[in-house]
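Hi F.,

I've been meaning to write this up properly since the lab meeting, where we talked about keeping a consistent format for the predictions we share between groups. The idea is simple: the sequence comes first, exactly as it goes in, then the structure tokens exactly as they come out, then a line or two of notes. No screenshots and no reformatting. I'm using this chain as the first example so we have something concrete to point to.
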Amino acid sequence: MKDNYIYSNNTPSKNEKFTVALVGNPNSGKTTLFNALTGSDGQVGNRPGVTVEGKTGRCLFLPEMEVTDTPGCYSLSPFTPEEQVTLRYLEQKPDVLLNVVDSTHLERNLLLTTQLLERGLPVVVALNMQDEAEAQGIEIDAKELSARFGCPFVPISAARGRGLTTLAEQCSQIRGRAVDRRRYADAAARYADIETALAAAVRRKVQADALSDRIDSVLLHKWLAFPILAVILTAVFFISVGGLGGWIADGIERLTPLLQSLVGDALSGAPQWLPSLLGEGVIGGVMSVVGFLPQVMMLYGCIALLEDCGYMARIAFVTDRMLHGLGLSGRSFVCMTLGCGCSVPAIMSTRTIKNSAERETTVTLASFVPCSAKLALIAFFTSYIFDGNALFAVSFYFASVIAIALGGLLLRPFKRGCKGCDDVFMLELPPYRLPRPMGVLRQMWQRGRAFLAKTGTVILASSIVLWTMTHLDFRLSLTDAEHSMLAAVGRVLSPLFRPLGFDDRGCGWQLSVAALSGIAAKETVITTLQILLPEGIRGAVSPLGAYCFVLYNLLTVPCVAAVAASVSEQGVGKAILSMLFQALFAYTAAFALYTIGSLAAVSPLSVAIVLASCIAIALLFALLTRRRRRIQKAPKGS
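Output, unedited:
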């Protein structure tokens, strides 16, 4: 069969650099292919919305080939923010357009292919997920499709590394070649062309498995969806915090006194401050954070499993309706899920939200999602105050969900958006797939490596600074912790945090300083407590005070890096307003919880009456709001 996608022979020299743009529908495997081609470690998930901006890397098979991953889009009509980002990149005219299509859904994916062919640039189509197509009994004649569309179609499986060398070679061969711009009269002509091509090139031996639909009938059930989600999250935290992750963390914790003893013996003849600095400051401070590395890695291993199997996309679908009432959408949830790793990419991903009101609200609320640093803090208090009970750990995640809901309601009157900026959230539910062990392990390693990198830089520097301020007074003379610079600062702050329960057992200045240190990095809170409370957190604060302390740090102003991302995305003025809202919201939430908890210990009936009154007011408000909406929607004169 003639390869009619080759039109001339003016191919550039072999070693000349050329650019390739990965373009495709959401969840077609673009990021997986990008990682396989470049050896990169970009985030991969069996859900749309993983890529929010272009990433560039050098091809492992052809060093002269530079590959850029673009956000997934269904068409080149600038309808969604992702499509706008992709279209802007294509306007820079890369040398080759590498169109990634899902071989199990060619009918939908090839619409974008026809639009790419109209741009007059060399196009190579990667028939991805061939392994899944074969499992479903789908046979695809790549040569027939190449002949009908006038460009190379290359069968591959990015997840299994099949066909990648051939794909890279095709990109190299077609670059620089003159191509005929295909033109379609209208949308009907596109679909007719696609239908004719698929009728000639695709054969199905068996009907596609409907297992995903049967599973969704349970997991997306109107009444069962949220309870199932709660059970799954509880299981995740039981495994991560109270199960295997907690068991490994306990083993690492036992190493700390051993290392401190070895350092003390090795420096027995040195000045007294040096063993203290290295033992209590460096080893104690750093190991207090490193000890929770297993729990962090286990949590993200579980999250990677949920992403890989396709359940994370279902969570976005389930929460979309609830978020809509807050002026948000499932797109906001997709952004917030990135916050489970770090608030910075979560905030940066909001640039794909077209509606300005929704975007600003999402930026403000994204830091309420517990990141890996906050997970370490949650694990710390769960282990030492709540005896490793995973229910306490998962309760903080549900608290963050409630906080996001309340925060959205409070911000909604101030976020009116703009006309013509309505953002439509389209979500494709991917089929359920068996998780790939290597992909899960890779994500666990990436998270662990990032956690250790921060421990070896920010946490190490913070440990040294905190030890110094704990052992020196303002005259720079050695002293005990009670008379140090840090104690003086803490006593100024302590009255401010006393209503939140930080000082209910006489250690208010230590907890106040720890909360303030979280501005640098939330892991530093643990380091500060380890240095200021060498005998341990047990007994330093009551369980209620400890819960309020964690809740405050969960919801308050995030770390400096996240604040910088907020400034970048919404400007200095609005970023300052976001920080003020976060600080006030966190303080109010912790104050309310401590007040109600303290009252419950004295008079449970009073608390029951207050809670019943709040529920009644909330229901009345909901009924009045619903009635007002009905009146507004009613036709005039009715």
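Notes:
The chain has 26 helices and eight strands.
Confidence is low (pLDDT under 50) at residues 1-10, 44-51.

If this format works for you, I'll send the rest the same way.

G.
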